[in-house]
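Supplementary material to the annual report.
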Amino acid sequence: MRVAFSAFLLLPVSRTLEFSNRFVIAALVLIVAALPLSGCAVKLAPEYDKAIFDGLAKANEEAMTLFSSVASGVKKDNFSRRQASYDGVIGKLDAVRVQIGSRVAPESPALMAEILKRTAAVPASETSAQPALPAVPSLGSLDRLIQTMTSMRNVDSQHGLSPMLVMGYKLRFEISMEQALTYEKALNR
Amino acid sequence: MPTLPTLPTLPTLPTIDELIKDINDAASKILNKDVTTITGFAKSQQIKLAKFAVWIAEAEIAGEFKNIPGLRDEFLQSLQDMIRDFINTLRGLAMVTIEKLWNAIVNVIWSALDKATGLALPRPI
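Predicted assembly:
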């Protein structure tokens, strides 16, 4: 309606045109404006963003370098040598998280929403008590990656890291990174 | 002898079997590729999550958490969160596959309708 109204107001017509003519032309503009929508493909997931995927890959590379440098265990006394590496990885992950969070998620078209609602394994009333899952799965994985690196930095600075603890943090990181990379890559359809 | 008027060319109507085959081909192509990706991801995650659970047990026995208050609970919480993220990622991957299937099947059927009617019929959204 807004398009039709705007078209009605902006039409370059002289005052001699009758109201009915204006209305017909405005309606035509509306139809033409709506035509591309009817040809659009359904979107149920966000668009692929190469910058997000590349940002994740870069953060992964830097984190793996850091894990490798502390794999034999480190003492808290020389934490200052590693602080910049931790901050670099956490900063990159934070930047990617902001990019994912600000990406426009498509709304399910009414028809698809109805199909998904009818085919849901669990009725909506039963899921309402559960905490909501993020619509974009990689957002949750990014939260986990940031938590992992922040915890590792804090433990390193206060206690140092044993080889076994490094192994545990690396496993945590790899699980969440695989989730985020797999999903973001799948968006490239 | 009067000449007969030329009849208009009849549109090509697909048979039901042809249409079913086209739908099946389009869906199978997507499913074969995506199911391979999803099962590969799921298997890799299951292995990693199992390794991580075993690591938590080993770290507990080795006393790795003893001198760092709250660290064991943090690792246990992270295991729970990562299982949740794993399921949510599977759901997200399935949504991408559903989207591709929907668009491919709609494209096959509406292309056949357009061809049969000679019109560009509006597609469902």
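The longest helix of chain B spans residues 71-117.
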